[in-house]
Automatic annotation (TrEMBL):
<dbReference type="Pfam" id="PF13561">
    <property type="entry name" value="adh_short_C2"/>
</dbReference>
<comment type="similarity">
    <text>Belongs to the short-chain dehydrogenases/reductases (SDR) family.</text>
</comment>
<dbReference type="GO" id="GO:0030497">
    <property type="term" value="P:fatty acid elongation"/>
</dbReference>
<keyword id="KW-0560">Oxidoreductase</keyword>
<dbReference type="InterPro" id="IPR036291">
    <property type="entry name" value="NAD(P)-bd_dom_sf"/>
</dbReference>
<dbReference type="GO" id="GO:0016616">
    <property type="term" value="F:oxidoreductase activity, acting on the CH-OH group of donors, NAD or NADP as acceptor"/>
</dbReference>
<protein>
    <submittedName>
        <fullName>SDR family oxidoreductase</fullName>
    </submittedName>
</protein>
<dbReference type="InterPro" id="IPR002347">
    <property type="entry name" value="SDR_fam"/>
</dbReference>
Amino acid sequence: MNRKRCLILGASGGIGEAVVHRVIEDGYAAAVQYFTNEDKIRTIQQGIPEDQWAGSFQADLSTKEGLQAFFRVLPPEWDAVVFAGGHMYSGLFQDMKEEDMDALYYVHVKSLWMTARHVLPYMIQQKQGNIAVVSSIFGTEGASMEVAYSSVKGAQNTFVKGLAQELAPSHIRVNAVAPGLIQTKMNGHLTLEDLQALENDIPMGRAGTPEEVADAVGFLLSRSSRYVTGQILHVNGGWC
C-alpha cells in the first residue's frame, strides 16, 4: 500500500504530538521533526504502526546553521507538511534581547519559508499537496507582553494567504489553524488565577485541547476541505 506521507515539524510539543496521531488515524505515514525531546519522539513512535512511521529528524530550527543542517538530511518528497512547532517569548518588548528576536524569527518564519521551498518542487510536480500551519490567535489579535511572538504569527498568516494564491493553479492548498488558549506546556507559566480569568473570557468557558486543534488540521488536510485554501481557521472557543 502506497500511503501518503506527512511531515510534522514540532512533533514533540502537545499540539504536534496530537497532529501526529491524527494524521496516522487518517492513513498517512508520518515523519517528525523535533529539537531536544527525543524521549517523547520514541514514545510517539512506539504507538505508530511500523508501516506508518516515516522517520524522525532532530534539528534546531532557531538558527541559520540548524536550518542548513536540517535540509541536508530532509527528503523533499512529502504529500503534506504541518508546521506545529515553535516557542513563545513573554515579557516587555523593550526588554527583549536581539538573540531572542532572531530565534522567534527563525523558528516561526524562516523555517516555514525554507521548508516550504524545500518541499514545493515535488508537490508542484505531483500537482497536489497540502501545507498547514499552526499559527495563533495572537497572529490576528496581537497581545501585550507577547509582541514579537504576535508579529511572527501574523507573518505566518499572511504567508499562508499569499502562498495559497500562488500555488492554487498547481492544486496545492495552504491553510492555517489559529488556536486560542490551549492546554499545553506553552501556557504552563500561567498561574491558576490567570488561567481561570482567561477561561472566564472565553464564551465556551474553557481552554481547548491539543486534539481539538489536531482535528482542525486533519480537516484542512482532508478531501472534505478540497475547496478551502488561504484560510486561517480559528479554534478558540469563540475567544476573540
